[in-house]
Amino acid sequence: MKSKILVVDDEEHIRELIRFYLDKEGFSVAEAETGQKALEILENEYIDLAIVDIMMPVMDGFQLVEEMKEFKDIPVIMLTAKSQSADKLRGFSLGIDDYVTKPFDPDELLARVKTILKRYSINSQNIVQIKDVIFDGDKYEIRYHDETIHLPLKQFELAFELAKNPNQIFTREQLIEKIWGMDYDGFDRTVDVHIKRIRENLGHLPGFKVVTVRGLGYKIEVEQ
Q1: What is the pLDDT of residues 148-200, one digit of tens each?
Q2: Are 78 and 96 in contact (CB under 8 A)?
Q3: Handedness of CA 7, 13, 14, 18 (dihedral sign)
Q4: Quick one: CATH architecture of 127-222?
Q5: CA 35, CA 56: separation in Å to the nearest integer?
Q6: Could you report the per-residue pLDDT of 107-124, keeping only the tens digit for each?
Q7: Which DSSP string corresponds to 122-139?
Q8: Of 18, 29, 90, 193, which is least packed with CB atoms within 10 Å of its CB?
Q9: Number of neighbours of residue 131 by Cβ within 10 angstroms
Q10: Domain extents in the chain
Q11: Which residues pair with 32 in a beta bridge?
Q12: DSSP states of 152-178 as a string?
């Protein structure tokens, strides 16, 4: 699957230049000319890395990164004409991964993108594989050969928790605490409802099945 890069800059020619080089290397690219547009993209699409300018109207790059990091931990490269140490320090304090000043060498920027993506890939511990089925906790999706399945968030989290611990039985109470939190005071059969939906969505996949252990709870049973 192609890595998707979000390019956020109010200058169209900068976005087009970066897109040209990323396209050439096989990356998928999303563009935003404002911070608000970038946040809309992040809410609706999976992004692997963001390249963010600082000096933009309404919401500057610092504000954007601060908001991004509140709900998505994705790598960020700041690309800007601001070269002062104070700006760099502010960026790194917000959790950015790299800081590139304009004018920039597109090939160097591309190399930095690849290096950061590789580092994040190595550090990722959110992949679980059962036979030929992959549960991807970073992208919140389940893959089987050419098929990609996107479940509602709580369904995915529940399926992922079971998949991480194949053949281990979880009680309803344990699953509610892990997925909904200790303070959950809603419908006590919500786990049953979610398990039913998971079976409907994943029942056709080979290699495992979600099993009810009567009187105890649920588990993912891996076929031998």
Answers
A1: 999 998 999 999 999 999 999 999 999 998 888 766 666 668 899 999 999 99
A2: yes
A3: positive
A4: Orthogonal Bundle (1.10)
A5: 8
A6: 999 999 999 988 776 555
A7: HH---EEEETTEEEETTT
A8: 193
A9: 12
A10: 4-123, 127-222
A11: 8
A12: -HHHHHHHHHHHHSTT--B-HHHHHHH
What long-range pairs does 164-168 form, CB within 8 A, spacing at least 24?
A: 164/128, 164/135, 165/219, 165/220, 166/130, 166/208, 166/219, 166/220, 166/221, 166/222, 167/219, 167/220, 167/221, 167/222, 168/219
What is the C-alpha to C-alpha distance for residues 131 and 115, in angstroms, rounded to an integer? 30
Q: Where are the alpha helices (DSSP H) in the chain?
A: 12-24, 35-44, 61-71, 85-93, 106-123, 153-164, 172-179, 190-202
Which among 83, 76, 75, 74 is positioned nearest to 104, based on CA atoms? 83
Looking at residue 24, its pLDDT comes to 95
- Under DSSP, is residue 211 helix (H, G, I), strand (E, B) or coil? strand
Cα–Cα distances in angstroms (integers) from residue 96 to residues 69, 90, 126, 220, in the given order: 9, 9, 21, 38
> Is 74 in contact with 47 (CB distance < 8 Å)?
yes
The structural architecture, per CATH, of the domain 4-123 is 3-Layer(aba) Sandwich (3.40)
Cis peptide preceding 57, ω within 30 of 0: no
Q: Let me know the angle formed at the C-alpha of 105 by 100 and 108, rounded to the nearest 5 degrees.
A: 75
Structural tokens at position 96: 């950015």
